[in-house]
Amino acid sequence: MPSLNIPRHVAVIMDGNGRWAKKRLMPRSFGHKSGMDAMIKLAECAQDCGVKYLTVYVLSTENFKRPKEEIEALFELIRKYFTENVKKLYARGAKIRIIGDLSILPEDIRKTLEESQKTMPETAEFTLVFAINYGSRSEILKAVNRAVEGGKAVDEEQFANYLYTADIPDPDLIIRTGGEKRLSNFLVYQAAYAELYFTNVYFPDFNKRQFLKALEEYSKRERRFGNI
Ligand code: IPE
Ligand code: IPE
Ligand code: MG
User: Fold this and answer.
1) What residue ranges line ligand 2, CB within 6 angstroms?
2) CA 102, CA 150: separation in Å to the nearest integer?
3) What is the SS3 assignment for 127?
4) Catalytic annotation present for 207
5) Cβ atoms 204, 182 nearer than 8 A
6) What is the mean predicted confidence (pLDDT) over 138-153?
7) Are strands 9-13 and 53-57 parallel, antiparallel or unpaired?
8) What is the Å distance from ligand 1's center to 18 Cα?
9) Any idea of the CA torsion for 122, 44, 75, 108, to the nearest 10 degrees?
């Protein structure tokens, strides 16, 4: 394989879990469980490929419109992931970061998330960013209100520091699985110059081969940032 131009920051809209399960006559929660397994493998693969930041869209602000049972199943997976997997990530030389409004999550999940950060290494070659109850519009509004409170006009760099993603470089590549071609309120401000990659593959089937295909496609893109 020719050498690839590896994006520093890849962000993934992990979509299609429900349809993946439906195709197998299984409950949607089974799709989410399989999606979580795929996410764990994807993070390892991204780190091994030399990606520095991987952001995964775990739960959007709008996903709370779903039935209570589905939200509960998703919460349970988040609990399980953070109690069982985060230590392994740290042992692999990775850090984590959580973006989103955590205030409406159940108390025990918030505690687990806080706890998991206490044992985190200070420096790492790779950061896995979890977007949980994340929505770009709410993030931008919060940032605007903080800027207004400051009483002075802010520039782009200062504004970026008010976002959840402060200190995280903008995504170079955004991958959406599951066939839809939209951002669904994900990193709307940060995506200004991201390369977009859409695949029909449902997220539980998005494996190393699929990821490398996305990286190959990214390598072929010419990023001009408005220049010629
Ligand atoms: C993405 O899969 C995971 C979350 C949004 C939590 P979906 O649950 O949206 O799966 P589909 O799109 O219904 O197949
Ligand atoms: C986006 O998927 C949210 C996550 C992957 C967490 P959705 O399935 O919620 O998006 P829409 O509703 O199809 O736009
Ligand atoms: Mg979906």
Assistant:
1) 13-15, 57-60, 63, 180, 182, 184
2) 24
3) strand
4) no
5) no
6) 96
7) parallel
8) 5
9) -20
For residue 58, how many C-alpha atoms fall within 13 Å in the half-sphere facing its CB?
Answer: 29
Distance CA(228)–CA(211), nearest Å, equals 29
Pairing of strands 94-99, 53-57: unpaired
* pLDDT tens readout for residues 186-196: 999 999 999 99
pLDDT in tens, 170-179: 999 999 999 9
Question: For residues 4 and 47, what is the distance between their CA atoms, to the nearest angstrom?
Answer: 14
Closest to 11 measured CA to CA, from 162, 221, 196, 160: 196
Where b means 16+ CB within 10 Å and e means fewer, 170-183 reads bbbbbbbbbeeeeb
Q: Which of 170, 178, 163, 129 is nearest to 9 (CA)?
A: 170
pTM, entire model: 0.98
Q: Are 67 and 102 in contact (CB under 8 A)?
A: no
DSSP β-bridge partners for residue 11: 55, 174
